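Comment thread on ticket #2218

A.B. wrote:
> Attaching the input chain for the structure job we discussed in standup.
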Amino acid sequence: MIKTLEWTDSGVRFIDQTKLPTEETYVTCKTHEQVADVIRKMVVRGAPAIGVAAAMGIALGIKNSKAATGAELKQEFERICDLIGKTRPTAVNLFWAIRRMRQKFEYFRMRTIPQIKQELIEEAQRMHAEDIAANQAMGRHGATLMPTSGGVLTHCNAGALATCGYGTALGVIRAAVEQGKKIHVYADETRPFLQGSRLTAWELMKDGIPTTVISDNMAGAMMKQGKIGAIVVGADRIAANGDVANKIGTYTVAVLAKEHAIPFYVAAPFSTIDLETSNGSTIPIEQRNAREVTHIAGKAIAPEGVEVENPAFDVTPGKYVTAIITERGIARAPYNESLRKLAEEPAVASI
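C.D. wrote:
> Ran it. Output below, let me know if you need it in another format.
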């Protein structure tokens, strides 16, 4: 299994996703500031992985704390959470992880400082294990929706590299292949950061799953030619009505899928579902550096000084989503009802 991130005695260790696929290297963060930096710079990315990285960053910061009293530790805890909370605004898992770590801190705040530190470390490790278990459960649910054979399109990377292991959208594909389904994956390159061509293709080739990379503007033509039997993507935030924030370009794929009568599935852990956000219009969309669009591998591909728009995400209305796959089960429209019903289901136990 790809170890996207892990807690070690030396610090939090990440595979450097900015170097893939040409170089498989790892970065060990020894401070919470370094963890915040790797989240911000997309050394680690993908909503579930960002959430667990945030939890581990908080645990690391508290582990390193020199606070002598509970009050000092509380102040330091809030400073750490504030720093990490400002790294990536769209992925709701980041804020879910901070809330969960805050609840754990408050529950144990009357314990000794060494005990509090240990409890936070164990909570972050527990979240890591739970994520893998959730992905595997999601895969089992979603595999039933995949075609017996043929092409499945995915956009961006929602695999092991976007999670703590196995993956969300790619977890569904992996589970379907494990069940004997003959799937050929079409991976959108996913401009401008190229998560599809760099990361998804790398993952699937390591697993021996047939994969073809296509440029983003080929997706419609592939659908028209009958090469795509289903589409499955991940998500960074899902509103209560089923609107889905995911990597820029997802909305285009969903509209094309609707036109060609191809099912469009979203796979995400329940921590990605934001029932407090009624619809996608209020989801904050991260704006990234223009150089991601104007340069590739440091080489300019656009005129210097040209104006650039570089939103990292778009919002796909729930009306285009055939089903939302979670570890708790599969939700279908009306999502305001089905997602709230899933919220009442028990969470998947960690492995």
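A.B. wrote:
> Thanks. Noting for the ticket: The chain has a mean pLDDT of 96.
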